[in-house]
Design a protein that fits this description.
Mean pLDDT: 89
Strand content: 35-45%
Number of helices: 5
Low-confidence stretches: none
CATH topology: Alpha-D-Glucose-1,6-Bisphosphate, Chain A, domain 4
Distance between the termini: 40 Å
Order of helices and strands: EHEEHEHEEEEEHH
Length: about 210
């Protein structure tokens, strides 16, 4: 991970995609079965928009997840290779993550930069999944899977399945006081942003 102290208030991490491209992955499938210390979680939220059929809700949620427009930028800024290249995501694509670690009001004291790489995309009529793995230098090792499901009983479910452990000495020392707190904050922000975002996209309101 890279620390940036007193960062500018407007960030453009497009150029950093090249810097992270050749670092390699810090997590590979099955790593969690070879050693201890892994946290495996599952979070689920139903996406409801009164007056709209599940097909429309599913498609709008899919569009947000494809753009990774699922986290508030004041908490975590995302730069994706596929959005820059104006196409759909595919395995091997990179995503730069810039988390605002220390802030006083709107003034940022320190940002942390890291990257993840798309491992798998599943795009089916009633199921969409995006899975990524951490790139070396990420504060954590692991993978996260985001899945949208249009169920047989006409519900639209959003599921998050992160697998992680501290990726370096600093995050091991900070875990669980800081690392887990930040991860939990980001997790809840994603759940809330996607569900409220779909509602806003379809109705113009953030709440009903």
């Amino acid at each position: 991970m890279n620390f940036i102290f007193f960062p500018s208030q407007t960030s453009d991490d497009t150029k950093r995609l090249t810097q992270w491209r050749n670092r390699g992955l810090s997590h590979h499938p099955g790593d969690e079965t070879q050693s201890g210390g892994w946290d495996q979680e599952q979070w689920e939220r139903e996406i409801r928009v009164p007056g709209f059929d599940p097909a429309k809700i599913f498609e709008q949620a899919r569009a947000r997840l494809i753009n990774f427009d699922v986290v508030p930028p004041e908490l975590l800024e995302i730069t994706t290779q596929w959005n820059i290249e104006e196409r759909l995501p595919q395995p091997g694509d990179l995503m730069i993550q810039r988390i605002h670690l220390f802030k006083i009001s709107n003034f940022r004291l320190a940002d942390v930069l890291s990257a993840v790489q798309i491992a798998q995309i599943i795009d089916e009529p009633r199921r969409f999944a995006l899975q990524y793995s951490t790139v070396k230098g990420h504060p954590e090792k692991g993978q996260s899977t985001y899945t949208l499901t249009w169920t047989d009983d006409n519900r639209v479910l959003f599921t998050m399945q992160p697998i992680s452990k501290p990726g370096n000495l600093l995050t091991r020392l900070a875990n669980p006081i800081i690392t887990q707190r930040v991860r939990l904050k980001v997790t809840h922000a994603i759940l809330d942003t996607l569900t409220k975002g779909v509602l806003l996209d379809l109705t113009g309101y953030e709440d009903v």
